[in-house]
Design brief:
The protein is of the alpha/beta class. It has a single domain (12-112), classed as 3-Layer(aba) Sandwich (Rossmann fold). Helices cover 37% and strands 21% of the residues. The chain has a 5-stranded parallel β-sheet with strand order 2-1-3-4-5, with helices on both faces. The radius of gyration is 14 Å and the shape is globular.
């Protein structure tokens, strides 16, 4: 198996957010930075897309109606065992306790909203 990354490879980012405006803004930003981007509007769709699209990075909103970012992260850590998939959670909630909780569920880092590139 060839594990060398091609110089023409582009980072594949899955952006997950149930709020259309927030999701679209983050997708636009990721694409402006030169990366491939796929949007998902809920936790269940994110889990399905990870299996199909195999992104290199996940930008994940914490508060969603079907599966929140905490549950998505926990399930991803159970589902993906053969590679590292960085999960960066995003939120506009005040305080750091929700980010600390996300890190305890397996998130790798967090970004406060609005995201500044």
């Amino acid at each position: 198996m060839n594990t060398e990354i091609s110089h023409t490879s582009r980072l594949r980012v899955l952006v997950v957010d149930d709020i259309t405006e927030s999701r679209d803004e983050l997708v636009k930003l990721v694409r402006q930075l030169g990366y491939d981007c796929l949007p998902a509007d809920c936790g269940m769709q994110a889990l399905a897309q990870v299996g199909i699209w195999q992104p290199d990075l996940l930008l994940l909103d914490l508060l969603m109606p079907d599966l929140d970012g905490f549950d998505v992260t926990r399930l991803l850590r159970q589902q993906i065992t053969d590679r590292w998939l960085p999960v960066i959670v995003t939120s506009s909630l005040e305080g750091e306790e929700h980010f600390i909780h996300a890190l305890s569920k397996g998130a790798d880092d967090y970004l406060a909203r609005p995201v500044n590139p």
